[in-house]
């Protein structure tokens, strides 16, 4: 298995595309569809003696443009089958618009978060400037969690890990007695994958994501191959760390509401993250929303229109998170 790294200045940094060669030429994920990345992708494949036309199948971990952007170009070149989880399929095929293009969804989301005019305009112009990242529409082959694929003598098992996106899936396999998985953005070595802003369609995003992290702990893979940066040698440990990070962040949200009284999502985001620019104007309040929503579902905060207020004195935040 080979790794090709592609530039990406927009999201979490350079993207990993994994190349599996054998009877079939198979890729896991495919980079943003910018002109420079297309070039890097073609050169990266060429260094292993492969052209886009040679690719038989592409497995996408999720719909985000930095993972699925080039899938359409690859498919147009040689007719590759593109597999993606059913919950993300229509965003990759182009049948459903993402927040980047969907005006109604933008309006609803920014209203719910009480995004002020300035940041709203800055975010919209940022999103409009990056529509090209999505690339060409794709004829997708959807799968469900638990589906298995025979690939070059290996068996890839799709493991549905929703949260960061609705359809995010890892592909688990065994090689030389080692249990590994391509995990996309389910867990990353350095950053905590965004929850709440990265896919605003996800209901109770934090609870779903934490369940996915518990699944990663339980799977106890020997190694995880993420969508960005380097191999994660102890995926279960990393997943535990991220659960702890979200528990701490929830404590900070409780603290903000305790000190400032009822707040809307944008105000909580401001107290957590301060000034935001570019994609962070989406990810910051999205993250604040995910935590407020988690607290609301457990009755710790009450929502009134777009405001959230503490409903419990000194809540036990630890009780809202598993400790796998
Ligand atoms: Zn992502
Ligand atoms: Zn990513």
Automatic annotation (TrEMBL):
For this protein's source organism, the top of the classification is: Archaea, Methanobacteriati, Methanobacteriota, Stenosarchaea group, Halobacteria
> Could you tell me which species this protein originates from?
Halolamina pelagica
List the CDD domains.
TTHA1429-like_MBL-fold
- A single Pfam family it belongs to is Lactamase_B
UniProt cross-references to InterPro entries, sorted A to Z: Metallo-B-lactamas, RibonucZ/Hydroxyglut_hydro, Sec-metab_biosynth-thioest
User: Which branch of life, at top level?
Assistant: Archaea
This protein's name? Glyoxylase, beta-lactamase superfamily II
Xref: SUPFAM superfamilies: Metallo-hydrolase/oxidoreductase
Q: Entry's SMART domains?
A: Lactamase_B
């Amino acid at each position: 298995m080979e790794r090709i790294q592609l530039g990406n200045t927009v999201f979490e940094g350079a993207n990993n595309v994994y190349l599996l060669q054998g009877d079939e030429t198979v890729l896991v994920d495919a980079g943003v569809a910018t002109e420079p990345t297309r070039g890097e992708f073609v050169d990266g494949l060429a260094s292993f003696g492969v052209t886009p036309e040679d690719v038989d199948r592409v497995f996408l971990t999720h719909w985000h443009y930095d993972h699925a952007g080039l899938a359409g170009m690859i498919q147009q070149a040689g007719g590759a089958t593109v597999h993606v989880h059913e919950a993300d399929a229509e965003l990759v095929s182009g049948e459903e618009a993402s927040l980047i293009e969907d005006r109604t969804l933008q309006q609803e989301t920014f209203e719910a978060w009480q995004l002020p005019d300035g940041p709203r305009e800055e975010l919209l112009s940022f999103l409009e400037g990056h529509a090209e990242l999505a690339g060409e529409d794709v004829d997708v082959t959807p799968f469900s969690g638990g589906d298995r694929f025979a690939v070059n003598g290996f068996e890839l098992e799709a493991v549905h890990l929703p949260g960061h996106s609705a359809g995010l899936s890892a592909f688990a396999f065994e090689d030389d007695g080692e249990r590994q998985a391509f995990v996309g953005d389910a867990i990353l070595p350095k950053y905590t994958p965004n929850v709440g802003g990265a896919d605003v369609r996800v209901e109770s995003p934090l609870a779903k994501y934490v369940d996915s992290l518990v699944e990663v702990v339980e799977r106890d893979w020997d190694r995880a191959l993420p969508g960005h940066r380097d191999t994660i040698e102890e995926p279960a440990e990393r997943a535990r760390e991220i659960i702890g990070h979200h528990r701490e962040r929830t404590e900070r949200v409780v603290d903000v509401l305790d000190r400032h009284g009822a707040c809307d999502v944008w105000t909580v985001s401001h107290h957590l993250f301060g000034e935001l620019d570019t994609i962070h104007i989406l990810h910051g309040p999205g993250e604040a929303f995910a935590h407020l929503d988690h607290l609301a579902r457990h009755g710790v905060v009450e929502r009134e229109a777009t405001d959230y207020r503490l409903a419990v004195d000194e809540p036990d935040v630890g009780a809202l998170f598993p400790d796998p």
